[in-house]
From TrEMBL:
Record protein name field: diguanylate cyclase
Residue span(s) of domain GGDEF: 179-310
NCBIfam families attached to this UniProt entry: GGDEF
EC number of this enzyme: 2.7.7.65
SUPFAM superfamilies: Nucleotide cyclase
Species in which this protein is naturally found: Halopseudomonas sabulinigri
Lineage: Bacteria, Pseudomonadati, Pseudomonadota, Gammaproteobacteria, Pseudomonadales
Amino acid sequence: MHVQGNTIDFDTARLKLDQSAKNAGARRKVAKRGSQFEAVQQQLLHSLQTTLEVDQVLNLFHKGLQELLQVDALEYRHNAEPAVVQVGQPAVHRCSYRISHAGNYLGELQFSRQQRFAENELLAIETLLGTLLFPLRNALMYREALRNALNDSLTGTSNRLALNQNLERDIRQSHRSQQPLSLLVLDIDHFKQVNDRFGHAYGDAALKAVVNCVTESLRSVDGLYRLGGEEFVVLLNSTTLDAARMVAERIRKSVENMQFELDGQPIPLTVSIGLSTLHAEDDANSLINRGDQLMYDAKRQGRNRVRVES
Ligand SMILES: Nc1nc2c(ncn2[C@@H]2O[C@H](COP(=O)(O)OP(=O)(O)OP(=O)(O)O)[C@@H](O)[C@H]2O)c(=O)[nH]1
C-alpha cells in the first residue's frame, strides 16, 4: 500500500504552485494539457455552486477530476462527523490531504487508484482542490445550520420542527406500506418542583439525565424529539401498539430506577407516557393529540404510568 500524504491550505497551495522549483517539470506537463485543465476547472467552479449537499459536492468534484486523470475512489472524513463519504471503490495507491481554509479545518480527503500517482497528477489534484474549498466550506456550514435548526440546543434531541418534518414523511410511508407506526408523548412528573427546589440549572441537568435515560432505552432508529419544556415525543416506526407498550414501559421503569443525584442528594424522577398508534384516518396532528390526551390521563391517574389507547 502506498500513501502519499499532504496538508493543503488554499493559500499555500497557490504559493507552492508559484514557487516550487522542484515541481517545474510537473508544472510543464500540466501546462501542456492546460486548456483541458482550465476547461475542467471552469466547469467545476460552475457545477460546485449548484449544490449545498456535502455528498453531491464531493461527487461532482470526483467526476470533474476523472476527466483529467484516473481516480478510482475519493474518501472524505471530518473529525466532528461519524459518517465517511465514499465515492467509488478504494484502491491501493493513495494520496491524502488535510483540507483547511484560513485556519478552519474542513476535513480530510483521500484519493486512491491502482497505479501510483505521478508528480504532475498530484499537482493537478492540488490545483483543482482550490475549486473545492469554498463549495465544501459552504456545504459544511449549511449542514451545521440545518442541524442547529432541527436540534434542541439544551438536550441535543431533535426539536418540534424536525418532528413535524419526519412525522409527516413517516405517516405517508406507513400508510403506503401498511406498516404500523406508534408514538409516545412523554412528560416529566412534577418537574416544576425540581426547578423550584434546586434552581433552573439543576432542572436543566435533570432534563438531560432523563433524555440520556430515554435514549438508552431506544433503538438507534427510533426518534426522540423535544416538543418544549419537559415534554417529549418518541417516534416508533414499524412498531405495533403491543411492541410500543413494551418500549414505553421500559422507558418508564428506567427513568424511575435512574439514580439521579444533586449535590449528593437523590432526586426521584418519573415520567407519564401516552401511547397512540396510527390509524388509516390519522394525520400528524390527530396522532400527537391522542398521545397527548393519553399522557394527561396518565397524569390524572397518579403519574409514573403509561396510558395506551383502547
Ligand atoms: N430547568 C428547566 N426547566 C424548564 C425548561 N422548560 C420548561 N421548564 C419548566 O418545567 C416546569 C413545568 O411545570 P408544569 O407544566 O407545571 O408541570 P410539572 O411541574 O412537571 O407537573 P406535571 O406535568 O403536572 O407533573 C416549569 O417549571 C417550567 O419552567 C427548561 O428548559 N429547563
